[in-house]
Amino acid sequence: MSLREHALSLFRSAVDTVRPAPMLKRAVKLQGDGCPQLLVKGQAFPVKRDLYLVGFGKAVLGMAAAAEEILGEHLVRGIINVPLGIQESLQQAGMQEMLLKPDSKIQVIEGAKNNLPDPEALKGAVAIQELAEGLTVDDLLLVLISGGGSALLPAPIPPILLKEKEKLTKMLASRGAAIQELNIVRKTLSLLKGGGLARLAYPARVVSLILSDVIGDPLDIIASGPTAASSHSVQDCLQILAKYNLLHHLPKSVETVLSSSPTKPTALEDYSHVCNIIIGSNTLALDEAKRQAEGLGYATLILSAAICGEVGRVATLYCQLIRLVCLGFAGLGEGTLSDEVRGNLLQLAAELEIPGLNLAEFLQALRGLGPERPVCILAGGETTVQLQGTGKGGRNQELALRVGLGLHRVQAVETSSPLGRCEIVFLSGGTDGQDGPTEAAGAFCSPELVDEALQEGLGVEAFLSNNDSYTFFSQFQGGHHLLVTGLTGTNVMDIQAILIRATETS
Questions:
Q1: CB neighbours of 41 closer than 8 A, spacing ≥ 6?
Q2: How many of the other CB atoms lie within 10 Å of CB of 50?
Q3: What is the pLDDT of residues 67-110, one digit of tens each?
Q4: Distance CA 258, CA 242 (A)
Q5: Is 196 helix (H, G, I), strand (E, B) or coil?
Q6: Which of 151, 212, 361, 454 is at 20 to 30 A from 221, Cα to Cα?
């Protein structure tokens, strides 16, 4: 198998391990008939009376189908809020296993067109709210949560109207508020977010199964934390509104709610009836890819599951890492050049502020790798792209194209570059199968890409300056370098794989 085939196989195995059905079946079991117990990752929850299910998010339809299969007749009723058109999309993609059976006890409500809260999503949120409010101390509520859940669970605190909350969110966004700031404001003005759903379900037992699409898997941020105690207060919300000069431009209803809300976050003990369990994440996907890579004979290292920052800076980080491995393969791992590359990497990592990344330790582990075994470096997370052009692309395709250009530039300035003695493949892909508004999940690249593209009359830099990576990869070699998986029914952000094999030992 080629490096490219290996990279594709690693990506597929990483995604497969966090697909709804295998993920649920690994994590959840129902045991016993007399007094049944729900076992979740080794924790037991007795099913004393009735078992209910609610869910919201882009991957929740598949999660619900798998959960209903496990729970059988113990499930009394369920309601899930999923993106508009998802049932039809999965049907067309032939993914029957992600769809509910015709006799399902779970009601499906589709909404949040273009990932924005709308009246349909509100209708679903109200239905979920009413189910939660009717539960008793002997009931068990299973909550399924995935990315995209925030837009699918809009429930403004009365008297706020959905359109008023949305207008305020748009005003904040237009003034440059970060996604974290938007979420704090949304949670403060919501009945169900920021632990609201868990509070309404009290005194029933609440067990949340969470598929994380957020760096670091913070429970109060994923889908705006409907079953997790909020780490933010009304005070934080007011500070954000003041920061963007919106305190004096608020609808009357928002002023009413903010003036009557408690100023401190809810005490943690209010959530003793809740258990939040992450059953799928980027880390789990990377661990599976590492297991597969080692099985293929690679010396494998995971860089981080929290890669973030501007796509150009992240591309430079990957190019320098590849350069360092190739220097090591050429027996130059301890020279002046390697020290310079290591210094560049440490500075880049400090600038990117990747959470939890101990790059010095990672670089130490790299020192032990020689040319006798191919090397695989895995990473995951979510980069950001500063849009300057009007082209079509996605952050994974742009990252791959930038890495291709970076490797080309390294080879151009280094005479007898160690990169020339290695076979190198870089892959970046979105685990949901969709990178930006394109049909591709991502793309592959190698150091030869720029020269080969020039032979076809394609200038990489021109495409990048127009953020037109998808058009480039579609035209280059007939789309051969595009990663196309189709919809996967899951989402744990993005995955990158670097595969390096020595072509000649020195």
A1: 27, 277, 279
A2: 16
A3: 999 999 999 999 999 999 999 999 999 999 999 999 999 999 99
A4: 13
A5: helix
A6: 361
